[in-house]
Structure formats: structure tokens, C-alpha cells
Write a structure and sequence with these properties.
The protein has 122 residues and is α+β, with helices and mostly antiparallel strands. It is built from 2 helices and 8 strands; from the N terminus they run βαββββαβββ. An 8-stranded mixed beta sheet has the order 2-3-4-1-5-8-7-6. The model has no long low-confidence stretch (mean pLDDT 89).
Length: 122
């Protein structure tokens, strides 16, 4: 069976952090990454052609460092948002998005690991 998608690489991996400023300092000053873009609660850092995203969690949320990855974002070689979403749904895969961002396509692999697909022009 031919795959309906061609993944070209990992766009970013999300790490949940308790203190965004502290984590940014570590990844920038110690590991030499550069800021790609950021907001008050998240920071995307460049490392080569990939990115590491730091998402600050609420004070009451626990972090399970080393045991949990929030999601893996995969960049597609080609595709259009509506068609990609329909292809996943037609395969029986439950698709969801992110509040306030209609361009996010999230779904889970057979073991429950959360994946995101990014269109070529994202």
C-alpha cells in the first residue's frame, strides 16, 4: 500500500517546562540555540533545520521530564490542510486541533503518542 503522505522531517518537538525564562536561558546560553519565534508562554528555538518548542505549563501542572513528550510535529512534502484532514478521518483516525489555531492537525498513533502534521507552506 502506498502512503498518502510523505514526511520530510521533524519540524519540532515540544517540551513542557515550569519556568520559560530559565529554560530559554539553558537552551540558548548553554546549548547555543537561537529563538525562532515566541510568545508569553511558548518559545520555538532553532537547532539546525529543526526546532525545539518550550511550552510553559500552569503552576499546578506536573512535568514528567524524561517520561513524556507532548507531541512530535512532522512536516509534509505536499498536501493541503482540508485534504490531509479528510484522509486521516477516512482512515478512521480521530483528528483534533488546537484552540485558536484552525491550521493545527493533531492525532494519535496506534500507541497513543500525539502527532501533528504541518503543511509544506506552514
Amino acid at each position: 500500500m502506498k502512503s498518502p503522505f510523505q514526511v520530510t522531517g521533524i519540524d519540532h518537538v515540544v517540551l513542557h517546562v515550569k519556568d520559560l525564562a530559565r529554560s530559554k536561558k539553558f537552551y540558548i546560553d548553554f546549548l547555543g540555540m537561537d529563538i525562532d519565534h515566541e510568545s508569553s508562554w511558548q518559545c520555538f528555538l532553532k537547532c539546525g533545520n529543526q526546532r525545539v518548542a518550550l511550552f510553559e505549563v500552569e503552576d499546578e501542572e506536573e512535568i514528567h521530564g524524561g517520561n513524556e513528550v507532548n507531541h512530535m510535529a512532522l512536516r509534509l512534502a505536499s498536501g493541503e490542510l482540508a485534504r490531509v484532514k479528510t484522509t486521516l478521518e477516512d482512515a478512521g483516525i480521530k483528528v483534533n486541533g488546537r484552540q485558536g489555531d484552525p491550521t493545527c492537525i493533531y492525532f494519535s498513533d496506534p500507541d497513543g503518542h500525539r502527532l501533528q502534521l504541518l503543511m509544506p507552506n506552514d
